Each structure stands twice: as structure tokens, then as C-alpha cells.
Amino acid sequence: MSKTVGILTVQGDFDAHRKLLERLGVAVLPVLYERDLDQVDALVIPGGESTTISKGMQRLGLYEPLRQRIEKGLPVLGTCAGAILLSREARNHAVPVLGVLDVTAIRNAYGTQVDSFAATLNGTADDGLEGLRCIFIRAPQLQDPGPELKVLARVDGRPVFVQQGKVLATTFHPELTDDIRVHARLLNYA
Lower CB density within 10 Å: C or N end of the chain? Predict the structure, then answer.
């Protein structure tokens, strides 16, 4: 049975996510309205500008329906700004959050656009992430993880890929590489 993955298309590089997901053989649906959530088996909240995305979500009335769907088990991947929106709290010019990931997100913690950088993960052989290239653009840092939060990857000792139940979040942009492993992990739960 084919799966359908939604991509919140309020703002951000949703086309890059679409291309990776299509390589994994799933149907992709743009999500802008509550009714769209009923048609997807999983959801991606892309990176972009978290203030703009949060204002769009408020305008479209998506906060509560999305929170309820995630709490009922909808698998979700938030990248960069998406990770901020999934967190329990956002600091450094706070935005409204969904509160479904027990971590505090510090917006733009690595600096401005000119401070963007890439790093390669040096994981263990069994984590499946060895050599993953991570691109950080005005990236958040994740702090104060709750007891249910699992850190899947770190860069310089800081969590950059986390999971809590079926909620996955990266502080980097996996969609800006050709590596499908982060998106494939989401599909494990769809």
C-alpha cells in the first residue's frame, strides 16, 4: 500500500523535501488546510523562517488540528524551523510552538545567514547515520531535553537530530543533500 506524506507548504524549501520523498517512492501532498491532514500518513514541517511559518499556521488555523493529529500518532519530521515549531518552547524571539517535542529550541543559535556551515556526522556503524552531511542555516540549538527525548545525532556535542515517539526533528537541512536517510526514518513510522 502506497503512503502519502504531506509537506506543510506555508513557507520554506518544500520542493527539495518533495524530491527526496518521491525518490523514496511515496506520494507527496502539499498541506495548507486542516482537511489536508486527513489525507496524509506522515508530515514534514520544513525549514524556512519560523516566524513566517508560525504566522501562516495561525492564519490558516492549523495549530490545534496539527497538534491533535501528532498527539494521536501522526509521524512528523521538522527540519530547522520545523524543529522550532515542534518544540515545547522557543527562545530568542519566541514564536508559538506545537509543544509536541520535549525540548527547548534556541532560534538562530549558531548566528546569522553568513554563519551557515556544514558538518559530517561521525556516528557508529549501527546508528545508520555515519557520514550524514548536515547543512546548518541560521540553525536553532536544542536544549533541556526531556526524559522521553532520544538524541539520534550530535555535532560538537550538541543534539542536531532528535526523536520522541513518532516525532523527529533536525536542526539542519537534510533536504539540501541527496541523502535520503532522514526522510526514510520518517517513513518507518508512517
Answer: N
